[in-house]
């Protein structure tokens, strides 16, 4: 009876849009089979070459396979692949998509990149409520000129479902080709950078930036002591959290005061606020959304124990 109750709860949660692909069944652990339930989308959030535990600076090839570089005459913003033809980025990166190339599978901005794939942009969708003065709703979608093929170096990231909770102190990773300090460019060959930083709760973040500036559509991350942060040129790139074997994009690099200053963490667009909007814009092959809540994680652990 206990097993059946947990199975029903997990199935109900997943069917509500919290981690189960449409049309995919959950194996019943209360029956005779010992098959574990399929709880996640089969493609998104898998970085097969990434065994990262603690940071370095240069990111090896394939560690962050959803990371894209947005380029005009040079790199100007980051983004993340969310299915085979759509990229998620920041609205403030785009007054226009004219002349912009989306580069995937890239490790360094200079030199040889054998896994490099390039696309142009056919559709730019900036959130209709984006406010360039406050950076609220700093989110945009880019449709690629043609679909890409997934490899170890090009894979979509998972996205957090509406209602996902991100707790203060939880470690995240942010990646990009931006400046390494304010006004200091990334040295040649301009290899993709990675940094591990903790989430800073919005209440604490408001103490630094002011209550009116930090909205529910934003989240903060960084060391309050300073020294680690995203910076200019990282805008639009992903802030990700690892959940079991999947990486989920919690935030989009948006803005901040300087770079890595004490008591001023970076500010990120809270992706979980935009599931409905994203699914409205992308009508086919929708991105993989996964919920992050203590309840669901507890149920998954309990189900695992009885299988």
UniProtKB/TrEMBL annotation:
<dbReference type="InterPro" id="IPR018114">
    <property type="entry name" value="TRYPSIN_HIS"/>
</dbReference>
<dbReference type="GO" id="GO:0004252">
    <property type="term" value="F:serine-type endopeptidase activity"/>
</dbReference>
<keyword id="KW-0645">Protease</keyword>
<keyword id="KW-0378">Hydrolase</keyword>
<protein>
    <recommendedName>
        <fullName>Peptidase S1 domain-containing protein</fullName>
    </recommendedName>
</protein>
<dbReference type="InterPro" id="IPR001254">
    <property type="entry name" value="Trypsin_dom"/>
</dbReference>
<keyword id="KW-0732">Signal</keyword>
<keyword id="KW-1015">Disulfide bond</keyword>
<keyword id="KW-0720">Serine protease</keyword>
<feature type="domain" description="Peptidase S1">
    <location>
        <begin position="53"/>
        <end position="283"/>
    </location>
</feature>
<dbReference type="InterPro" id="IPR001314">
    <property type="entry name" value="Peptidase_S1A"/>
</dbReference>
<dbReference type="InterPro" id="IPR043504">
    <property type="entry name" value="Peptidase_S1_PA_chymotrypsin"/>
</dbReference>
<keyword id="KW-0325">Glycoprotein</keyword>
<dbReference type="InterPro" id="IPR033116">
    <property type="entry name" value="TRYPSIN_SER"/>
</dbReference>
<dbReference type="GO" id="GO:0006508">
    <property type="term" value="P:proteolysis"/>
</dbReference>
<dbReference type="Pfam" id="PF00089">
    <property type="entry name" value="Trypsin"/>
</dbReference>
<dbReference type="InterPro" id="IPR009003">
    <property type="entry name" value="Peptidase_S1_PA"/>
</dbReference>
């Amino acid at each position: 009876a206990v097993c059946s109750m947990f199975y029903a709860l997990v199935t109900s949660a997943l069917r509500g849009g919290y981690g189960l692909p449409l049309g995919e069944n959950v194996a019943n652990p209360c029956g005779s089979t010992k098959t574990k339930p399929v709880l996640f989308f089969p493609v998104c959030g898998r970085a097969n070459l990434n065994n990262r535990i603690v940071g370095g600076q240069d990111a090896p090839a394939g560690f962050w396979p959803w990371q894209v570089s947005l380029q005009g005459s040079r790199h100007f913003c980051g983004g993340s692949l969310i299915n085979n033809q759509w990229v998620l980025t920041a609205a403030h990166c785009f007054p226009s998509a004219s002349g912009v190339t989306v580069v995937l599978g890239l490790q360094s901005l200079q030199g040889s990149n054998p896994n490099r794939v390039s696309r142009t942009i056919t559709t730019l969708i900036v959130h209709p409520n984006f406010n360039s003065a406050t950076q609220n709703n700093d989110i945009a979608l880019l449709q690629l000129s043609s679909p890409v093929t997934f490899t170890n170096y090009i894979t979509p990231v998972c996205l957090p479902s509406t209602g996902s909770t991100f707790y203060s102190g939880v470690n995240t990773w942010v990646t990009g080709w931006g400046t390494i300090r304010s006004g200091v460019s990334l040295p040649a060959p301009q290899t993709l950078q990675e940094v591990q930083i903790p989430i800073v709760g919005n209440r604490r973040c408001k103490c630094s930036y002011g209550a009116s500036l930090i909205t529910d559509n934003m989240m903060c991350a960084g060391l309050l002591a300073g020294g680690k942060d995203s910076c200019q040129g990282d805008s639009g790139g992903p802030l990700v959290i690892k959940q079991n074997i999947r990486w989920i994009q919690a935030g989009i690099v948006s803005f901040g005061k300087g770079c890595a200053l004490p008591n001023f963490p970076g500010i990120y667009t809270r992706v979980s606020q935009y599931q409905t909007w994203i699914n409205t814009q992308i009508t086919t092959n929708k991105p993989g959304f996964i919920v992050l809540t203590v309840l669901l994680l507890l149920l998954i652990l309990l189900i695992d124990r009885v299988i």
